[in-house]
UniProtKB/TrEMBL annotation:
SUPFAM superfamilies, alphabetized: Nucleotide-diphospho-sugar transferases
Record's catalysed reaction(s): 2-C-methyl-D-erythritol 4-phosphate + CTP + H(+) = 4-CDP-2-C-methyl-D-erythritol + diphosphate
Top-rank EC class of the record's enzyme: transferase
Enzyme Commission code: 2.7.7.60
Keywords tagged on the record: Isoprene biosynthesis, Nucleotidyltransferase, Transferase
Site residues, Positions MEP for the nucleophilic attack: R154, K207
Pfam assignment, any one: IspD
Name of protein: 2-C-methyl-D-erythritol 4-phosphate cytidylyltransferase
Protein's pathway: Isoprenoid biosynthesis; isopentenyl diphosphate biosynthesis via DXP pathway; isopentenyl diphosphate from 1-deoxy-D-xylulose 5-phosphate: step 2/6
Keyword Transferase: yes
GO MF, one example: 2-C-methyl-D-erythritol 4-phosphate cytidylyltransferase activity
Main function: Catalyzes the formation of 4-diphosphocytidyl-2-C-methyl-D-erythritol from CTP and 2-C-methyl-D-erythritol 4-phosphate (MEP).
Primary gene name: ispD
Organism, as annotated: Haloechinothrix salitolerans
UniProt-listed PROSITE patterns: ISPD (PS01295)
């Protein structure tokens, strides 16, 4: 079964506050982009990668990914994450791959074991698979004035990571249908009524969103990866 990974990397990283797009930010001399792409290719279950780049950084992303050029294509992304995934998916010929992963460039330290677990779950017959972790904080619902209106049952909540894996047909159906906006790809597939299976995620797959997250990556994640 052939596997392609789509890497949405066209975000600006406003919450990080970097002068360059977040994917080009380096941790110990290697960009998040290069780390995310090499992590996928090194997992030994991914045949090819399609990266969505900011429109004004396409050439720079191609240069950054030159070491992977035989198995990596760069397309121009869109105005939000979903449109970047859609544009990357459009560049993949339908049916050319059995499994499509979608993996944030911002989750640059996802362990190979998690990538393989997601792929294996789809290969075993699931339409979709996502890595998740239990929620460790108590989660409240608040109204517009900041007053709590409900407390969620934490036991039933999970924090969702990437890579998320889908059969080619299911992901294309989700991106072809007129659905409500979703913050992840599984959120679209759920609206089709397809079953999304969870696998156990990993703290190292954290999303680098803020300067604090970057500091954790510098201090904890990169040294582990390079050991
Ligand atoms: N127009 C966009 C917006 C986001 N992404 C990608 O989606 C992933 C998850 O998004 P997030 O971490 O929230 O990144 P940004 O949108 O860049 O962050 P911010 O909201 O702080 O600007 C990232 O790899 C990001 O590059 C994308 O491909 N296209
Ligand atoms: C896809 C995702 O990483 C799953 O947790 C997340 O939803 C992306 O976050 P964003 O801030 O909405 O881009």
């Amino acid at each position: 079964m052939k596997v392609v990974a789509i890497v949405p990397a066209a975000g600006r990283g406003e919450r990080l506050g970097s002068p360059v797009p977040k994917a080009l930010v380096e941790v110990r001399g290697v960009s998040l982009l290069a780390r995310a792409v090499s992590g996928l290719l090194d997992s030994e279950v991914v045949d090819a990668v399609v990266v969505a780049a900011p429109h004004d950084y396409h050439a720079e992303f191609v240069r950054e990914l030159a070491p992977f050029e035989e198995r990596c294509e760069v397309v121009v992304g869109g105005h939000d994450r979903s449109s970047s995934v859609r544009l990357a998916l459009e560049s993949v010929p339908p049916g050319a791959y059995d499994v499509v992963l979608v993996h944030d460039a911002a989750r640059a330290f996802a362990p190979g074991a998690i990538i393989r677990a997601v792929v294996d779950t789809v290969r075993s017959g699931a339409p979709a698979a996502v890595p998740v972790l239990p929620v460790t904080d108590t989660v409240k619902v608040v109204d517009a004035a900041g007053v709590i209106t409900a407390t969620q049952d934490r036991g039933a909540l999970r924090a969702v990571q990437t890579p998320q894996g889908f059969t080619d047909a299911v992901l294309r159906a989700a991106y072809s249908a007129r659905l409500d906006a979703a913050t992840d790809d599984a959120g679209l597939v759920e609206q089709l009524g397809e079953k999304v299976i969870t696998v156990t995620g990993h703290p190292d797959s954290m999303k680098i969103t803020t300067a604090f997250d970057l500091a954790i990556a510098e201090a904890v994640l990169a040294p582990k990866e390079e050991a």
